Amino acid sequence: MTVCTNMEQKNKIIYAVDRLAPQIKQLALTIHAHPELSFAEVDSCAALIAPLREAGFVIEEQLAGLPTAFRATFDSGKPGPTIALLAEYDALIGLGHACGHNLIGSASVAAALALHAGFPELNGRIEVIGTPAEEEGGGKILLAGKGVFDGHDAVMMFHPRDKTMVTRGGLACVDAVFKFYGKAAHAASAPQNGISALDAVIHTFVGVNALRQFFTDDVRVHGIISDGGSATNIVPAYAEAKFLMRATTVKGLDIVRQKVFAAAQAAAAMSGAQLTIEEGLTYAERNNNLTLATFFQHNLETLGVDVVPPPRSGGIGSSDIGNVSQITAAIHPYLRIGDVIPHTPEFAEAAGSEAGLAAMILAAKALAMTAADLITDPAMLRAVREEFLNWQAQR
């Protein structure tokens, strides 16, 4: 496989990112200092849009009806590929940017601005698509359902991590809220008149735990009691549990889902409670475009960054980029920001550190360089598209 190495053009992109670096670092720090939760990323969304609008990108706000989704487009009007750089910017409850989305969104904005400034002969179309609610809500899934990613030749983003890897899997997952309705009674003087919704929740956890020995090794099921009653001397008339289920594929996930739902239904029956289930969106497994990942790795190595292979097993979460990767060629590489694990206070601190900002700048350069490869080398673009179409045909 050949890789385009037009370093004169790429040096212009690298220079453009370096020139933007102070502005982009401040953007990432501003978002980091003011974390906003899923679908409420009003200020973060506006902060990411501002430099793109100033540079002349065409801005679409409230994309696909989502208040904090956006698309910023530079269209050359000349034939060429359509490439999207994805931005995430939602935070975690109680932890802030403990997944580094402040760095993700800012890197994609920097890459687009550098392409625009350092590559005036750009053919085709470059988009930054602002995708809210990755942590909870599946913003990309909703956008995909509205056709936002249809017709794109490739989509790219980066994610901070404790290792630099260009490929890594992503489990399919779905969440569900089990709501149990019982009957209140005095827990001491007339418990026989009550139906404990909390008992139904507890039996659900017992049932799920009994299932674990029958799950395949890839399956993960985790839950919390989100409402267990209001007072110890009252039989709880209402109780609620939230579960997240994961498996390697959507097909395998459906089997897990059926078993967990059956456990909740059995728990309701044995407790005498009524049950309603509110199911969330299904996050699909990730389809890494290996050809595109190879080009991205080449550009990282050109920048002096060492890449390690992904773990052979374990260490995998879920992301709504998986749903996008079912529609078009996609990559979701990782860059190291320190010896920190996502969704921890330590990771949140690293996402606002000098190491985090330095990784973001490197990611912006590699993203822009890889986009330039696809724009300037038809053979590279064709190889990326052929891999995706072959994968799609074999599903």
Automatic annotation (TrEMBL):
It holds the Pfam family Peptidase_M20. Signal peptide: none annotated. Keywords: Hydrolase. Gene3D superfamilies: 3.30.70.360, Zn peptidases (3.40.630.10). It comes from the Bacteria. One of its GO terms (cellular component) is cytoplasm. The keyword Hydrolase applies. Residues 176-267 form the Peptidase M20 dimerisation domain. InterPro entries: Amidohydrolase, Bact_exopeptidase_dim_dom, Peptidase_M20, Peptidase_M20/M20A_hydrolases, Peptidase_M20_dimer, Xaa-Arg_dipeptidase. Coiled coil: none annotated. One of its GO terms (molecular function) is para-aminobenzoyl-glutamate hydrolase activity. Belongs to the peptidase M20A family. This is Peptidase M20 domain-containing protein 2. It comes from Rouxiella aceris.
